[in-house]
Design the sequence.
DNA sequence: ATTTAGCACTCGATAGAATCGAGTGCTAGC
DNA sequence: GCTAGCACTCGATTCTATCGAGTGCTAAAT
C-alpha cells in the first residue's frame, strides 16, 4: 500500500481506541457481540463477529476469544452450539467503554431543543410532557422525578380555614408552583384567628427560600400560636415535597414492545405503578454514582431483566430530581443515554430559567 | 311426580326467569356458554353445555339450538368442529339479562366501605386510591375521571403576581381542592394593582358556586379592570376543569394478564396514555345511556377487543365524573359491574359529604 | 313435533421423526 | 499465533400420523 499522498499521516480511520483493560482485540469482539445482540436479540455466533468487525480474523480465532470472554463472565451461551449472549457484566463493559460518544446525535438534540422552546405553561405540564418526549425519543418507558421545593423561593404562604377544625396550608412558589396540605386541628379555631396566623406566616415566609422558613414565627396570642404550631409539620412536609406525587411516567406501553414475555411486561408495569419504589430506585442509582444500572446491579429483584438509565436534574448546581429510562438489559444504550442526558440537561436549564426569571414561560 | 307436600307451590327453584325474547331455553344456553367462556377462554361445545345447564337435554338438542344462536348472531365459531364463542351481541344479551343481581356481593361491598372509611386526605389522593382499589378488586385496569368544579363552592380566589407580565390565578374550593392557572398579561402590571384586583375578585367570588362567578366584577381603575379582563378566560377554564389533568388510571399492569396477545396489551396501554381519549370515551358511553360498552359498541376502533364498564359519579344528584373499568370483552361482567357500581356509589357519597361538610376527612 | 342416539366428518392440537443448519470445540498444520 | 478442517450438538423447522373434541345430519324414539 503506497501512501499516494504524503499529506495524511493518520487518515480518517474512525477506529476509536478508547479502552485498554481486557485487551484491545477482545474488547472489540465483545463490543461487536453486544451491539449486534442489542439489535437482533439473537445469540451472536463467531462467524457473524468475524464478518462484522474491522479486524480480519477467522471465525476460529474469534471463537477461542469468545470462549475466553465467556470464562471471564462477559458472555453466556443459551445452550451448546448456540451463539453468545452478553451477561450483565458484558453490558457493563460495553457502556463503560462506549466507542460512540455519549453526547446526543445532532438531529435528536435539535428535537429536544425545539421541544423545550415550544413547551410552556405549568411546571407539571412541562415535566409530564418531558417524560412523554423521552419515551417517544427512545421507545422505552421513561420516568421524571420532579425536583423538591427545597431551594425554591416562596412567593406567598397562606392559611385558609375550611372547617372549624381543618385548615388548608397553601404555598405559592415564585416559579408558579403551588403546593398544599390539609392540617387538622385539635380544637375548633375561629376564622379570624386563622386569618391572623396566615398574615403572620405570609409575612415571615414571603421571599425566603423553603429551607429557611423553619422555625416559624411565634405569636403573643395563644390561639394563633396554636395554629402555627399545628401547621409546622405540614410546612416541612411540603418543603420536602412529600405532599404531591411528583413522578411522571411516560410511555409505559413501550414496555410491551421492549419485552417479549408478557409476564415480564406485567411485572415491570406493576412496579412502575408504585411511585415510591421508582423514586427510591432512581435515587439509589444516582447515589451510587452511576448513570446506568444493568440487571442485578441495583439489588432490586423484580427488575433483574431491566436496565435503568438515569440522568440527574440540577437547579443552581444542586441535585433536584432526575429523569430515567427503563428498558430491557439489551437496550440501545448509546442512543438512550444520549437522549436521557440531553433531556436532563435541557430540562435542568429550563428549570433554572424558570426559577430565576420567576413564573411560567 | 306426586307433589309430596302441598306446601310449596313454587319451590326455591332458583331459576331466575328474567328474560323473554329469544326464548327461555335458548337464553339459558347462551347464558351457560357466555359464563363458561368468560371463565375458561376456550370455545364451548355442546357437550359442556349439556352437562352444565340445569335443563336436561342431550348434546344434540343443544347443538341445534346453538346453530340457531349462531345464525342469529349471538355466537361464532372459530372454525368448524370447534365449540362456540360469544359475539359482541352475545355478550350484550348476557349483560342485559344478567341472572345474577348486579348489586355487589357482600364481602366486596364491605371491602369498599371500609376502604372509604379509612381513606382520608386530599381529594386527589382519594381519587387515586379509589382507582387502585377498583383495579385490585376486579383485576382490570380502572379509570377515575374527577368531577369538574362546576358545582363547587369557592372558598377563596386570589391573584398572585409572579412576573410583571404574568399572574397566577388561584382558586380554593370549599372541599379543599386548589386549582390554578397562569395568566399572561399584555403589558406589565404593578404588584399593587394585581393585589387590588385580587381583593376585588376574592370578595366577589367567595362563597359563590363556580357557575355563578361569571361575569367578573368591574373596577373603576382601568389598570385593575385590565387585569380582571385578562383573568376572565382562565376562570372559565378552571371552572370547566380544563386546567389540571384529572384522570387517574389504576392497575394498568392488569392488562397484561387480561389479554394474551402482547400486541393488544401494547395498543390498549397506549390508549390509556391519552387521557383526553379516555375521558371522552367514558363520556360517550355514559351519554349513550349505557353502563357497559362491548367491543365495537363505542365506535372506537383500537378498543374493539375491549369492554368498558362505566359508573357515573354524582354530586347533589348532578353528574360529576365517572369511574370506569377496561378489560377484554370476555370480562367478568357481573363482578366487575358490581364493583364499579359500588365504588361509584360510595365515592359519590364521600364526595357529597366532602363538599357539604367542607374540607377534608 | 321434539328430542335423541348414532355416525361420518372436520380440523386444530399434540407428538414423533427426520432434517437442517448455525454454531461449537478441538486438532493439526501453516 | 492463526486458520482450515472436522466431528458433533442441539434448537428450529418441517412433515406426518394420530387423537379427540366438536359438528351437522339423519333416522329412530318419545
Sequence:
Amino acid at each position: 500500500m503506497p501512501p499516494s499522498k504524503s499529506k495524511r499521516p493518520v487518515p480518517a480511520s474512525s477506529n476509536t481506541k478508547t479502552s485498554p483493560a481486557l485487551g484491545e482485540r477482545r474488547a472489540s469482539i465483545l463490543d461487536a457481540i453486544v451491539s449486534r445482540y442489542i439489535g437482533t436479540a439473537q445469540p451472536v455466533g463467531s462467524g457473524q463477529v468475524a464478518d462484522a468487525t474491522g479486524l480480519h480474523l477467522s471465525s476460529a480465532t474469534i471463537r477461542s476469544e469468545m470462549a475466553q470472554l465467556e470464562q471471564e463472565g462477559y458472555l453466556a451461551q443459551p445452550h451448546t452450539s448456540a451463539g453468545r449472549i452478553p451477561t450483565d457484566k458484558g453490558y457493563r463493559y460495553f457502556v463503560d467503554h462506549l466507542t460512540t460518544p455519549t453526547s446526543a446525535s445532532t438531529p435528536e438534540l435539535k428535537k429536544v431543543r425545539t421541544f423545550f422552546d415550544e413547551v410552556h405553561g405549568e411546571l407539571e405540564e412541562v415535566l409530564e410532557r418531558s417524560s412523554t418526549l423521552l419515551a417517544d425519543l427512545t421507545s422505552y418507558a421513561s420516568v421524571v422525578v420532579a425536583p423538591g421545593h427545597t431551594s425554591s423561593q416562596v412567593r406567598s404562604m397562606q392559611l385558609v380555614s375550611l372547617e372549624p377544625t381543618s385548615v388548608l396550608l397553601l404555598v405559592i412558589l415564585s416559579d408558579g408552583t403551588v403546593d398544599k396540605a390539609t392540617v387538622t386541628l385539635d380544637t375548633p379555631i375561629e376564622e379570624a384567628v386563622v386569618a391572623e396566623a396566615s398574615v403572620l406566616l405570609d409575612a415571615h415566609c414571603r421571599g425566603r427560600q423553603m429551607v429557611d422558613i423553619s422555625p416559624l414565627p411565634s405569636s403573643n396570642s395563644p390561639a394563633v400560636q396554636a395554629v402555627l404550631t399545628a401547621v409546622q409539620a405540614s410546612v416541612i412536609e411540603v418543603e420536602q415535597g412529600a405532599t404531591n406525587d411528583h413522578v411522571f411516567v411516560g410511555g409505559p406501553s413501550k414496555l410491551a414492545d421492549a419485552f417479549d414475555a408478557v409476564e415480564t411486561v406485567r411485572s415491570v408495569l406493576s412496579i412502575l405503578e408504585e411511585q415510591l419504589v421508582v423514586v427510591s430506585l432512581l435515587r439509589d442509582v444516582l447515589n451510587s454514582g452511576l448513570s446506568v444500572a444493568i440487571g442485578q446491579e441495583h439489588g432490586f429483584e423484580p427488575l433483574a431483566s431491566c436496565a435503568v438509565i438515569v440522568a440527574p436534574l440540577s437547579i443552581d448546581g444542586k441535585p433536584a430530581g432526575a429523569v430515567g429510562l427503563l428498558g430491557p438489559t439489551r437496550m440501545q444504550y448509546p442512543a438512550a443515554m444520549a437522549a436521557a442526558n440531553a433531556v436532563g440537561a435541557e430540562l435542568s436549564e429550563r428549570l433554572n430559567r424558570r426559577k430565576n426569571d420567576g413564573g411560567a414561560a
